[in-house]
Model the fold of this input.
Amino acid sequence: MAFARIRGNPLSSVSLILLMAISSATAGAGVATLVSTIGATERLFALAEAPDAVQMHVGPLETSSLDSFAATHQDIVDDHQVQDALQLDNQNLRMHGMTDAARDGVMDLLLVTQSPRFDFLLGPDGTPTNVRDGEIAVPGYYADAYDLARGDTVEIAVQGDVQTFTVADTVSDAQMGPSLVNSKRFVVSERDWNDLAERLPVEHILTFRLVDDAGDRFAEAYRLAGLPANGAAVDGSLLRLIAALTDGLVAILTILVSIVLLAITLLCLRIMVLTALEQDARRIGVMRAVGFSHREVSSTLLLGYAVQSGVAVLVALLLVFPASALLRGGDVVLSSGHGSTGTIVMLLAVVVASAIPTALAAQLLRRVRRISPLLALTRPGVSAQTRRRPRALRWDLPIPVSIRLAARGLTTRGTTAVLLIVMVGFAVALAALPQRVTQTIAAPDFITTMGVGQSDLRAFVREGAEASAGDALERSLRDDPDIARFAKATSFRVALIAAARTDDVALEVGDTSAFPLAYARGEAPAGPGELALSTLAAQTAGVDVGQSVQVDSAGSTHRYRITGLYHDITNGGRSGKAVELPGGDGIPLWQTFMVDLREGVDQGEKASALALDHPSASFTELDRFVHYTLGDTVERLKTASMIAWAAAAVVMLLVFALRGRLEATRDESDLRLLRLLGWTRGGLRTIPLLRAVGVAGAGLLLGWVATESLGPGVLGATLSSFGGGATDLVAANGWSLITGPVVAAAAVVGALIASAHSPALLNES
Done:
């Protein structure tokens, strides 16, 4: 009986198998990507012996103060070291005959030697790379960007002297490897480093290995000790988060897609099982009448769904491996050590996702006990005893009969119609939401919601440059006829004191009105004594808009009232903005200039010209900054979005093909009667097609509403872990405009396929 149903409804069986296979394969690929990403990140940090705290510093440095601090805080500091790095201008790095000028102002290039005790830069085999004189090891970011391999050459030009290095390795950097980190380390030999150090400025990377759970105590002790801190500071948890962010986002998105696909599959299976029970009511009644128990009947019917689930597992196993490789880009750093674990978890996810529909079918088949043998043998269908007889059609209305029959089919089976509309809405949101999120992250305006005001150019003058560099740049911008407007801000390292907790934040002091941010709550500070905080800094300190905090800067404490909260993905997500810092006391980090150009002025050419006139400053256009930092994340999200779109369209085609065949089988007697009344085959196909168009249109509207309402929250949840939050989606364009209609059209095509077969003209009298 079970196999006869599969043979008698091949389209329905194949559709259900493919539905279960697609949802299972997507779940397996998402879980495998997540496990592989987490495993690769942990393995990278373990092999590299990554630091738990990093402090960048430019300027004079006395290592004895660090040694003394470590010696007196052995309950916090396990080990520490100082790595000296040479700052290399992007225009002085040449690969395959091209300079890296495009990333000038975006990526800071550092030349280092291999770390002595920890924070190693690893080669492809997972061991610390060692280079000889004349060789260089390049970070993976640049190896991918310029297609560098072992044996290629890299040129470094310093003060007119060009040195050629041979690429010895591609290194994995736990600290600075991800594209979101704006510094990249190249490894050279100690002799080459000493030679270049005579002509390049030096930056210090202070790294610490801490005892377990000592991060907060270390930050407080380091601040109180007054140790060097005129640069960016990050902790180990943030380094791990950034390292896993790109692949982790793709994995989480894929898992969410698989959950939606599984929900659609379960809704479709519910319709299929209940329809099958109605069609088989007489057969079930006979089995019950001759002595079969309801459990035996349910088991017999369940066997068919179990067989289909087993076939779906086999199909899913064929799909999950290429899908997983595509999502991971075929290159997950140091993931080989977790290959077996990832494979086991992936297979387990496939099996579990395929078993869930079978469990639902078993639950639905318990309704067999409600089928009375007597009623099943004397009534045409199990639902005939409860279904309300449809009202007769009026023939004097101007509306075509086909449309009225289609509308009556939806209203008399209202529950099924609602389920189909919800499924289409799910599928449209599934296809459109990832596209819109990706488009929003890639948009230039996205930066205004992430802690940076919108401007044509941004310039940075780091502490340690010439003392007059910032003033000289300000005078130049004021006198330049190409400059429409600019604003200057100075960032200080300060301590934020709230209740019993003290945290270091980067406080940007200057005019906040010229290039405003998009505030999550509240507004920008307008005068002295007012402060805006990033959401992550406010959450850490336990404060909100309207409350007051104290800011300790160079031993001088000032009270500020919080006027607004904004999202920030820079400075580790912990920052603040104020109009002034009384006395200007504090540890200066850098000066920031935001510049708008007059109409018609080329941004790239102007940035290059300013960089030549002011070598102590770095210049970049915001759209270029977004491209080179978020570009890798956006590309991976685009891949996942295309997979989600294709899966949603295929699933809708299968669902409506399956549903159409079930309806055609259930309504076969009515369709034959219409044929006897003179309807053509084309006229009969019009009725289910109109029903499908109505359902697809309503589902498209529901999916659009869901995308617009849920999108900001989904994007905010994605970004909240590193300082972001709920963000409005940009207006749809390009692919984003057609994703939903394509999914809805796939549903209509599925209904068209199902209606291709019409009943033969038989004598029904």
